[in-house]
Amino acid sequence: MDRRSFLSSMVFSAAMPRLGWADAGSPAYLAAAREADGAYALYGLSEDGADIFRIPLPERGHAATAHPSAPEAVGFARRPGRFALVIDCVAGRETHRLHSPEGRHFYGHGAFVEDGAVLVTPENDIATGQGWLGLWARDEGYARIGEVPSGGVGPHDILRLDGDVLVVANGGIRTHPERGREKLNLDSMRPNLSYLTLRGGIEEQVELARDLHLASIRHLAQAQGVVGFAMQWQGDLPDSAPLLGLHRRGEAPVLCAADMAEQMAMEGYAGSVAMSGGQVAITSPRGGRVHVFGMDGQFRASLKRADVCGVASAGSGLMVTDGMGGVLRIRGGALSPAQSYDRAWDNHLIRVG
Amino acid sequence: MRISLAMRSLTVTLAMVCGFSDMAKAGVDEALSRHVLPGFGAFAQSSAALAAKAEEDCRAGALKPAYHAAYDAWMGVSHLHLGPLEQGGRSLAITFWPDTRGMVGRTVAGLVADEDPVVDTAEGFASVSVAGRGLLALERLLYEPELAGYGTGDYECRLARAIAVDLARMAREMDDEWPDFAGLLRSAGAPGNDVFLKPEEAHQALYTALMSGLEFNRDQRLGRVMGSFERPRPNRAEARRSGRSKRNVVLSLEALRDLARGLADQPIAESEAAFAQALETAEALDDPVLAGVATPQGRLKVEVLAQEIRRIEEAVAQEIGVALGVTAGFNSQDGD
Questions:
Q1: Distance from CA of residue A19 to its chain's centroid?
Q2: CA A42/CA A345 separation, integer angstroms
Q3: Higher pLDDT pick, B276 / A3
Q4: CB within 8 A of A2, min separation 6: which ones?
Q5: Rounded Cα distance, B101 and B123, in Å
Q6: What is the mean pLDDT of residues A149-174?
Q7: Which of A240, A260, A311, A335 to mutate to test the interface with B (most CBs of B within 10 A)?
Q8: For residues B156 and B139, is the Cβ–Cβ distance under 8 A?
Q9: Neighbours of A114 (CB within 10 A)
Q10: Which of B37, B138, B162, B222 could be disulfide-bonded to B306 (CB atoms 3.0-4.6 Å)?
Q11: Which residues from chain B sit within 8 angstroms of residue A265, using beta carbons?
Q12: Are A32 and A64 in contact (CB under 8 A)?
């Protein structure tokens, strides 16, 4: 960051009263989209999916991370992105731009800890393939202040749990930006779920059985002390490998699958996961369906919706978004439309607060 | 003056929008009435004929013609992965392919070895693993030398009958359900339509079925058999036991051309030419089970066909996708 923008951010924070999400119209969700004319934007949406704000993005996003209290979002470029934007959702403008250090790239996700003072970003060390978590100090204009190992290869999604414990989905897949998204280590990949703190390091790691080593753990959700992890199968398709696991600290993970035909119809791909109201849902844009399970891991319903990918908690229920602009509630085991826009919602729907 | 110009341009825009959506709606209507509904009708009819034949004489020799007729009709609709075919695991219960873990053979062998009485009721058999049902399970009974010699009193006979009856039931149910689902496609964007929230979603659904069907022929029916140059995989060919591998590609391409013609609202010269070229190549291929991939020359011929199917995909995207304003899925193509 140059000196002038650092100073202007200092002046800005000193002069303004402390703002909250209410000042940005109290969005319930953030979601990135491609608009009808091909432009990209980050939207704030209300509880029922109505537009609250729109902020242009320079290119296609992947996911956003909402600050826990300030009306500030960090939007990440798609993997293997080298930058992330910090967006002031009241002013509707970019306030900082984070660049991954030399030899690193982001994975499209991040999380805040320390009451929102520190942003944590999963990163790939391109030369070694090791996963790292980059640390950025919000109060210092998002200066890079350190890094810790992610506990595996290909750290993708990250969540903050109570007590500032972080849970990281180490997807296990090694890639190199020069070779696009080509997967370089399928034979030897060993994904894991890692729990860690910034001060104490790794506290617990969960690996699945050897015959599931091709199930790349990618996306995370949490509720009631349970972490839900969504996976992407890297083996031959069709396959009925599970795409969802539920994990409680200190216990063995519970793997969740539908009957064989439904499971195969997910095409080995879960794009997002969310938990709420005693249920957990994974989305498959490729299979055009949402699978809903109980917190006991039992399969409940398959809801059909083309190109569905974003999913987030919505009160005691769930909300999904899709590539045709739909915003739909999952209610009573069925999809119920809330909004329909002329835009393509990107992979993730992010709950604010 | 300013205002009236603005009004005029608004009127023109509205007319264009309405004109476009009426035209596009005609494409959905035509695809439904000319392709989808008759296709499911034909599949229901031929599956019912297969079941009737199995009741009369369940032996392999007697069932083969009806099996082929049902499979032919299935190729007319197997790409329509929306609505009824997406329910209850029907698609895999009709053809469990690609079978990456050899489950059809194992499931059929297991049923036969145990003489599992689950075949004796339609409800019971409907609960059997999808790998033990449908056309490819029946193919084992009709064409595997160690199974196909069964007599009318043997367990295999009851199993063949159960498969045929189950297939006829699924085909009939889909034929019954399609008119309602077609109504949802036709009324896409209308108030109360909770399945297709705007008119484009109906085009998107049928267009996706068209493009995925083309890709399935190229990437799966041909691609799996081609394997790599060093390691071609002739044993992976779909329905190779009954000698249908190439025939399935031909019939599927013909059905997809039908869907393309219905969905398009204007001449699609490039798509037509690409379909014609691929069909000509496929028909000229003297290799019913694509076993030729084992030799470099044979593999090249199949590869040429795969490339020609890719050219159909490109032409369809240009001529139909662009006209309808739809593309392949935003998220399904992304993969992260």
A1: 25
A2: 10
A3: B276
A4: none
A5: 26
A6: 97
A7: A260
A8: no
A9: 15
A10: B222
A11: 86, 89, 91-92
A12: yes
**Dist CA B316 CA B269 (whole Å):** 10
Packing angle of the helix pair B155-186, B103-114 (nearest 10 deg): 130
Cβ atoms of A32 and A42 within 8 Å: the answer is yes
Mutual orientation of helices B245-263 and B199-215 as an angle, nearest 10°?
A: 160
What does the alpha-carbon distance between residue B32 and residue A8 come to, in Å, rounded to a whole number? 61
> How many C-beta atoms surround the C-beta of residue B158 within 10 A?
21
* Residue B98 to residue B78: CA distance in whole angstroms: 14
Evaluate whether A239 touches A246 at the Cβ level (below 8 Å): no
Two structure tokens written together for B306: 């795969």
DSSP code of residue A17: P
What is the C-alpha to C-alpha distance for residues A83 and A156, in angstroms, rounded to an integer? Answer: 15
What does the alpha-carbon distance between residue B65 and residue A221 come to, in Å, rounded to a whole number? Answer: 53
**CA-based nearest distance B50→chain A, Å:** 24
ipTM: 0.91
Read off the pLDDT of residues B9-63 as tens digits, 9 standing for 90 and up.
443 333 344 444 565 677 999 999 999 999 999 999 999 999 999 999 999 999 9
Cα(B195)–Cα(A284) distance, integer angstroms: 17
| DSSP H or E segment with residue B167 | helix B155-186
Helix (H, G, I), strand (E, B) or coil at A278: coil
Flag whether residue A307 sits within 8 Å of chain B, measured between CB atoms.
yes
A335 to B200: CB separation less than 8 angstroms, yes or no: no
Lowest mean pLDDT of A32-41, B17-26, B110-119, B305-314, name the range: B17-26
Half-sphere exposure of A143 (CA within 13 A, CB side): 10
What distance in Å separates residue B48's CA from the closest CA in chain A? 23
Chains A–B, number of C-beta pairs less than 8 Å apart: 95
Q: Could you tell me the two tokens for A11?
A: 């002046």
Q: Is the pLDDT of residue A65 over 90?
A: yes
Rounded-to-integer distance, Cα A298 and Cα A313, Å: 19
Residue with tokens 């970019």: A94
- B157: part of which helix (H) or strand (E)? helix B155-186
Assess whether pLDDT exceeds 60 at residue A3.
no
Mean pLDDT score across all residues of chain A = 93
**CA–CA separation, B125 and B118 (whole Å):** 6
Q: How far is CA A81 from CA A59, A234, B336, in A?
A: 11, 22, 12
Report how far apart, in Å, the C-alpha atoms of A58 and of each of A75, A97, B18, B111 are. Answer: 11, 12, 33, 59
Q: Which pLDDT belongs to residue B21?
A: 53
CB-CB contact of A171 with A146 (8 Å): no
d(CA B204, CA B321): 9
Residue B272: which residues within 8 A CB-CB, separation 6 or more?
A: B257
Task: State the average pLDDT over residues B93-116.
Answer: 97
How is residue A247 written in tokens? 């994990």
**Closest by Cβ to B194, choosing from A236, A239, A336:** A336
Select from B195, B268, B209, B273 the least CA-distant residue to B76: B209
* pTM of the full structure: 0.93
A288–B89 C-beta distance less than 8 A: no
Q: How many CA atoms lie within 13 A of A346 on its CB side?
A: 27
Closest CA to A152 of A187, A194, A105: A194
Measured between CA atoms, the residue of chain B closest to residue A218 is B336
Please check whether residue A262 touches B, CB under 8 A: yes
Alpha carbon B263 to chain centroid, angstroms: 17
Residue A122 CA, chain-centre distance (Å), reads 11
Best of A35, A324, A345 to disrupt the B interface (most B CBs within 10 Å) is A324
What's the first-to-final CA gap in chain B, in angstroms? 53
Query: In the β-sheet with A155-161, what is the strand arrangement from edge to edge?
Result: A155-161, A165-170, A192-197, A201-206
